[in-house]
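Thread title: Can someone regenerate the structure for this chain?

I was given the following input by a collaborator and told the matching structure tokens would be attached. They weren't. Posting the sequence so someone can regenerate them.
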Amino acid sequence: MFDLTTCRAAVDRDLGAILDRLGGLDEADWTLPVRCAGWTVADLAGHMVAASSGQAEGLRKAVEGSVEPTSLPARAVGDGTELVAGLARGRDGLLAALDSLTPDVLEGLVPLPFGLVPVPVAVQIVALEYGFHRNDLEWALGGAGPLEPDIAGTLLEVSPGLLPMFADGSQVAAAGDAPGTEVGYNLRAGDFACTILHRDGAWQVVDDPGAATCDVLADSLSALALFIMGRIGADHPTLKITGDQAAAADFKRYFPGP
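Best answer:
Regenerated them for you:
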């Protein structure tokens, strides 16, 4: 998982790479679709402008000791030059806000745009945001490379806590569908394994792989992280699905999220 130092380094790395890529785009590239449904490259860039601004504001409030809700700015619009400039300002503001966090603040809460969370949790969210969006951008521009190892590893490390939040709608816009029957997943890649079951009307992370109805084996940590976050589907060649194939295809119905 990220600490403050590694989070800052990851944000600087990934936003820097994103800005470099956006700065070299042709006009037509801004209209290419990304994996976020219905979005173009311009929409993704506009979202990151808004997200970096909202996250920086929330972190500044944490430093001030405020838990007043932070609103997410509207997605930025404009031509490529305007979006790149806006994201550069967003990166600088976010890095400055991370630099302002003290040990005392790290023990408190931060009002991010989607809710009030402990600062150490916010550190994970901020770093993951731009690691995934960097990969989204590369995909849109014709690349199919993996996530950075620290992004994939951290997403999997926090997923046992994250998946139930996705399912019940906390921290995301809408709750997932409830399965009509008992469903369970073994999610596996490398040394990582997580079993999550739907029992008694709720999702539970359990130490009982034999109870799962569907096994998702990925050939890398990156592939499993991309599956969990809905960037690739159950039919992707990096995944091996055994057991309930329909449940594998329905995974993001049950666990919506960013």
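The beta strands are 109-112, 115-118, 184-189, 192-199, 202-206, 214-218, 239-243.
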